[in-house]
Design brief:
7-stranded mixed beta sheet; alpha/beta; 13 strands; Double Stranded RNA Binding Domain; about 25% helix; about 35% strand
């Protein structure tokens, strides 16, 4: 593979944004697949199917669509460059999209199915001289529709094609990525970082994980990245990406759609987060008119500062997702999808409670008697990483 520093993109086009002496130059590094390359077939099969397809001018269609969306970015403090990067310039930073997750949920509703499509990608800014990651901000797009049961892989691919390549599509992930970039603190220097260090799965939870997600720690990666997204969205913290199975020391390899690669050095995290996914649980009650379900997601969360051996959070949390259905509709929830919806909701509310700390909400989530003290301490950690 060719080195990214030698070839950032295949063509040279004009810069976007105002050319000002104080503007930060960002070289366009395009679309990349983050994480372990061996996980691509499990996690990114639809983007993988697009990576060899070319736009009319010869650029990969994913890079071309991302570049097209960037034309809508309105920032006078950034000058985007599409030529060759000069690693010796002293102002050499690069901007990339790193794909973190693709997923499809399929839930039966009578004679129809509800399909939920998600794509998560990160805004990555890195220093080309030091090969150091400077900024990592997650962005997520979600699309839902109703259709006939049993959609094929080709039909799913068509939806994802719109999510990646259709600029006017309401759930275009590159549009959301540009929206996140619009307010991103590109020039900010973080003094402290946190990272999801470990994700472990209890045997009871592992027993219900789909087979394809058990390969190459794909599910652990999904859990970590879902938590990262919730935490970054709610708290705007400096995160070191989770790179289970990919990291060598403190480096992360980002592979780009045009075949180039670049090794990024990651900051050493000051604070680490460990997540243990415990048993998923389901309860069902049937009446003459309704089917009532409860889908429970349960985790143990630890937040600590390894260097000082100081622990800030050590508590069990849960989220119960209640579903009441009309029996006449014939709607049968998919247990796995419902568990993951409950788990994502747990992460979202937990990340929000770091700042809000509503006593009723926390009491529903955990039995830890000192939870307010722990969440206050967690907020102190977050403040140090902003």
């Amino acid at each position: 593979m060719r080195h990214l520093l030698l070839k950032l993109i295949l063509c040279v086009t004009p810069c976007i944004g105002m050319s000002a002496a104080s503007a930060k130059d960002l070289y366009f590094a395009g679309f990349s697949f983050a994480g372990n390359y061996s996980q691509n077939s499990q996690r990114y099969q639809y983007a993988e199917s697009l990576k060899e397809e070319k736009a009319p001018h010869g650029m990969n269609v994913l890079d071309a669509a991302l570049k097209d969306q960037l034309s809508t970015l309105d920032r006078s403090d950034i000058t985007l460059k599409y030529g060759l990067g000069d690693a010796t310039s002293g102002n050499a930073s690069a901007l990339a999209f790193a794909l973190q997750q693709e997923s499809v949920e399929d839930v039966k509703r009578g004679d129809k199915d509800v399909y939920v499509y998600r794509v998560i990608g990160d805004v990555l800014v890195f220093d080309m001289q030091t090969k150091t990651l400077l900024l990592d901000i997650p962005a997520m797009a979600q699309y839902q529709d109703v259709g006939a049961p049993g959609r094929t892989s080709d039909e799913h691919k068509n939806v994802f094609r719109h999510m990646y390549l259709d600029k006017t599509f309401g759930a275009n992930v590159f549009a959301e990525w540009v929206r996140r970039l619009k307010d991103a603190p590109v020039g900010k220097t973080y003094t402290s970082y946190m990272k999801v260090r470990n994700v472990t799965i209890a045997p009871e939870a592992e027993a219900v994980i789909p087979t394809d997600l058990k390969q190459n720690d794909a599910y652990q990666t999904e859990v970590a990245q879902a938590f990262e997204y919730s935490l970054a969205s709610a708290q705007n913290v400096g995160l070191v990406p989770y790179t289970k199975g990919q990291a060598i020391g403190q480096s992360m390899v980002a592979r780009f759609a045009n075949g180039d690669s670049f090794t990024l050095s990651l900051p050493e995290p000051d604070f680490v987060i460990d997540i243990r996914v415990r048993a998923f649980r389901k309860a069902q009650v049937q009446t003459n008119a309704t089917e009532q379900f409860v889908f429970g997601a349960f985790i143990t969360l630890d937040v600590e500062q390894p260097q000082l051996q100081t622990k800030y959070v050590n508590a069990d949390f849960k989220n119960l997702n209640y579903v009441v259905l009309d029996r006449s509709e014939g709607f049968t929830p998919n247990d796995w999808d419902a568990y993951q919806t409950s788990l994502r909701r747990l992460f979202i509310v937990l990340a929000q409670q770091i700042s809000k700390r509503d006593s009723k909400t926390l009491a529903e989530m955990t039995k830890a008697p000192d939870i307010d003290k722990q969440m206050t301490a967690f907020k102190g950690v977050v403040d140090k990483c902003m």
